[in-house]
Amino acid sequence: MTYHPKSDFIRVMIERGFMADCTDMQGLDEAMVNGVVPAYIGFDATAKSLHVGSLIQIMMLRWLQKTGHKPITLMGGGTTKVGDPSFRADERPLLTPEQIDDNIAGIKQVFSAYVSYDDTPTGALMINNAEWLDELNYLDFLRDIGRHFSVNRMLSFESVKSRLDREQSLSFLEFNYMILQAYDFLELNRRYGCALQMGGSDQWGNIVNGIDLTRRVLENEIYGLTSPLLTTSDGKKMGKSLSGAVWLNPEMLSPYEFWQFWRNTTDADTGRFLKLYTELPIEECERLGALEGSEINEAKIRLANEVTTLLHGADAAAAAAATAREVFEKGGVGDDLPTLELTADEIGDGISIVQLITRTGLAKSGKEAKRLIADNGARLDDAPLTDTGLMIDAAALASPIKLSAGKKRHALVVLAN
Hints:
417 residues, alpha/beta, six-stranded mixed beta sheet, five-stranded mixed beta sheet, 45% helix
């Protein structure tokens, strides 16, 4: 039976492909029709930036606010000290409080591009769970909260079971994570009236735990909603590219490289990604996604422009598109390409082309760079590069040189003044 939602938010979630599961779709839909629903997603501060894998959740918070509700971005200042064991083969490295605070400062930049933090009823809140987790008294916590958790049930959750089935160690520290996440929902409900937790479908067990705990302790009705875990049509995890994670902060990945990531979307994913990552009308997403042959490139450029505009602004998207045109259509050198700047001292009597390909990030190692050249995948100033022993001296860098890996990845090497 198809559910026909009454609230704009649930309708958008279903239509655009954000919905995997909901604990009580009808109850949540009614609550959203009747007033402003505060909802949260938790983000652990394990790096200075989030990457593209988190963008589906960020877009959910954006739509939540656009449809008249209140987003809460919960930073895991406390839980990052523990580490989420969900679907990991090993324990996360533990970070110092200073590293965690530094990471939170970096992550905050991104959210303000998508949601508005203000004092209105739907203004977003940025909360750090260290606010309550750092103050916990262990014995009180065990007595008041721990008694509501069944270890038998916790062991049955897929995120824990998969580790145990593979006979991989799961520390008591990590085992506590799901109790702490459940407690986050309880505290957010108690302090801020938060009635909904959202997350990827790998968080289902943790979300259900929080709902169960809050009902037992506060007797409040709250909800959970998950999005599908995204893989690309070729089975790869969303958010990874050939050169590593696709970061959202511009100092960790340039707007041009971010734009290129979306421009390189496979044909089969284009329509789906337009619905998830842009605000174009559904009909337009479907029209663009149905284009075939060389016309699908129009849809990919539109996708890249729209997603880059949301994160980095219209100017950055236009500059990235202009650089791409310059590089691809005219064979020129765009201003926005990733650039490696070398001093005359670094070059000395000459620097190998293999080293340059590696240092520009076009290959991860010298071995990979040599293989790229051997497979005819490398180009120097748009000409095929065949000599793995080629040395570049300072005179060759009198004007910038362009290195290419395949047709889509480029970088400049320039001599510092």
